[in-house]
Amino acid sequence: MEQTFIMIKPDGVQRGLIGEIISRFEKKGFTLKGLKLVSVDQSFAEKHYADLSAKPFFAGLVEYIVSGPVVAMVWDGKDVVKTGRTIIGATNPSASAPGTIRGDYAIDIGRNVIHGSDSVESARKEIALWFPEGIAEWQSSLHSWIY
Ligand code: RTP
């Protein structure tokens, strides 16, 4: 099965969206394999977003990510990277369809509530960065009802 890294950003945590977001991934049928509430420092946030270091919004993005606790998660399932991005919606909430997380709960690109890995390879790197201690090994008993 494929895995993805999902992070509820500080605005999502402060706005009380943790339960709603987890619920959407759970109801879809994906399996939660890692979960923690953490505050990260500037160098960790810069490492997570290293690919965007040349962007003009990089400093503001890092400041946003360190502004409060985030929820770091690993979700597992068939095509979860791509489907996770579909559940999340487009980067800019104004282009996100209603029914997506950003389409329903965000307005501004700089406060777009959630992150999801954009490829299987980035997921692998991000899971290693955020969960160096490893993640849970378990299989939901509903597996045969989902696949
Ligand atoms: P994410 O990595 O957070 O899931 O977002 P993404 O793949 O949809 O978008 P990406 O281009 O990787 O950008 C990462 C995050 O940077 C912020 N951003 N701000 N001010 C701006 O123009 C701008 N553009 C991007 C967003 O928080 C975006 O999610």
Automatic annotation (TrEMBL):
ATP binds at K9, F57, R85, T91, R102, N112. Residues 1-137 form the Nucleoside diphosphate kinase-like domain. The active site is at H115. Transmembrane segments: none annotated. GO terms for biological process: CTP biosynthetic process; GTP biosynthetic process; response to hydrogen peroxide; UTP biosynthetic process. Its cofactor is Mg(2+). Its EC number is 2.7.4.6. Keywords: ATP-binding, Kinase, Nucleotide-binding, Transferase. InterPro entries: NDK-like_dom (IPR034907), NDK-like_dom_sf (IPR036850), Nucleoside_diP_kinase (IPR001564), Nucleoside_diP_kinase_AS (IPR023005). It catalyses: a 2'-deoxyribonucleoside 5'-diphosphate + ATP = a 2'-deoxyribonucleoside 5'-triphosphate + ADP; a ribonucleoside 5'-diphosphate + ATP = a ribonucleoside 5'-triphosphate + ADP. GO terms for molecular function: ATP binding; nucleoside diphosphate kinase activity. It comes from the Eukaryota. Major role in the synthesis of nucleoside triphosphates other than ATP. The ATP gamma phosphate is transferred to the NDP beta phosphate via a ping-pong mechanism, using a phosphorylated active-site intermediate. Belongs to the NDK family. PANTHER family: NUCLEOSIDE DIPHOSPHATE KINASE (PTHR11349). This is Nucleoside diphosphate kinase. It comes from Escallonia herrerae. The lineage of its organism: Eukaryota, Viridiplantae, Streptophyta, Embryophyta, Tracheophyta.
